[in-house]
Design brief:
The chain is an alpha/beta fold. It is built from nine helices and six strands, in the order αβαβααβαβαβαβαα. Helix 2 packs parallel to helix 8 and helix 6 runs parallel beside helix 7.
Length: about 190
């Protein structure tokens, strides 16, 4: 593992925001969906400000629909990776993108916490620094959200929040990016 994988802080270097399966037919059943969508949209806008790559996935879009419009509107040129495996690592395209972009840190958002999110995290923790944004992931029930977070934490995933990761990635209040992010941090 590289030195950056051992650091306690998450940095921009080698980081990517992963948005897992926030889709039209799945979202209506998700607990606290408004807060989830607000935080994911905030993180996407923030990732653009600090210039870290974003990877978007869709689980079986033929059955679950496509990514919700709130996300598509702010990522009009980003092609989602379609998958049928619950773990994103079951997708060759996902693994190729991580490799091509030289990603070492995954900042994970999306649904469902106890299925696609947790399986991706559990498969990724041995190869990447993995940070799960607790208020930007959800499940159909709060119990499954909680169990998913606990299992990921027990397996060395870093659990953070939207605001916490934003300040951590910024690192300094004197930067241009901090000023550009102020509206998102309020």
């Amino acid at each position: 593992m590289s030195k950056s994988l051992h650091s306690k802080l998450i940095t921009r270097e080698g980081a990517a925001l992963i948005v897992i399966d926030v889709q039209e037919k799945l979202l209506p059943k998700i607990a606290e969906k408004e807060k989830l969508v607000d935080n994911i949209v905030k993180l996407i806008k923030f990732a653009k400000i600090i210039n870290i790559p974003i990877i978007l996935t869709e689980q079986y879009p033929k059955g679950l629909g496509h990514t919700i419009k709130e996300i598509n509107e702010i990522l009009p040129d980003l092609h989602p990776i379609e998958k049928t495996t619950f773990s994103c690592f079951g997708s060759e395209e996902f693994k190729e993108q991580l490799s091509k972009m030289r990603i070492s840190t995954l900042i994970i958002t999306g649904v469902e916490t106890h299925v696609c999110v947790s399986q991706t995290v559990l498969e990724g923790v041995d190869k990447f620094k993995v940070c799960v944004i607790s208020d930007a992931v959800s499940s159909r029930t709060k119990e499954n959200w909680h169990i998913g977070l606990e299992r990921m934490r027990e397996n060395r995933a870093i659990i953070s929040s939207t605001e916490m990761i934003m300040y951590e990635l910024l690192g300094d209040a004197k930067t241009k990016e901090f000023k550009e992010s102020l509206d998102l941090l309020k």
